[in-house]
Amino acid sequence: MIPQDILVDLESVETKTRDISSNRILNVCFPYTSRDDITQAIKAIATKVENKEEQVENVSLETLNDNMYFGPESYPLDILIRTSGYTRLSDFMLWQCSYNCTIEFVETLWPDFKSMSIFSILLKWSFYRTIQLQEQEIMGMANNTHKNNRIEFLLKDLPPAPPRVSVSGH
Fold it and tell me: Which residue, 82, 126, 128, 80, is CA-closest to 105?
């Protein structure tokens, strides 16, 4: 269901980034729904239980995650960006939106969403993530009187920057 010209660009990006050593993931999903993703995972697990490849008592959240479209490589999201000005999730990657996921609603339509747009969102996210890590460190110090009074901020715990990739080849 992906137009041929877009599919060619996506395959080109995959080829260019295939051998890059990175723990960064960019998910671009269309047509996709979380309900369908979760439903097919449950069906896959039920089939495994029926075929005695899996025992019901061993089924866990991890089992469900491993049987979803993205598989075990699907980590909880750090940021979910919803373009087009709509302030709804549209049944998109709901399983991967954990309690730590920042959701950004932007007015920009997807075709007009450029590198400067992502840069500003990442800058804002990193600022607030830094504050969050600082608050966690302060709260940890409040519970442990044996620590030094000096706070070491955990900037090293921020995730690495995403790779620079353009679907259009520019």
Answer: 82
Residue 168: closest CA among 92, 94, 112, 96? 112
Q: Give the CA angle between residues 1, 164, 34 to the nearest 5°.
A: 40
Token duo for residue 113? 């969403």
- ∠ CA 9-12-15, nearest 5°, is 155
Q: What is the pLDDT of residues 1-12, one digit of tens each?
A: 677 888 888 888
Q: Across-strand partners of 103? A: 80
Is the full-model pTM beyond 0.90? Answer: no
- Supply 170's token pair: 């520019």
> pLDDT tens-digit profile of 47-71?
999 999 999 989 988 898 899 988 8
Phi, psi at 166, each rounded to 5°: -125, 130
Altogether, the residues listed in the chain come to a count of: 170
- Is the distance from CB of 78 to CB of 125 less than 8 angstroms? yes
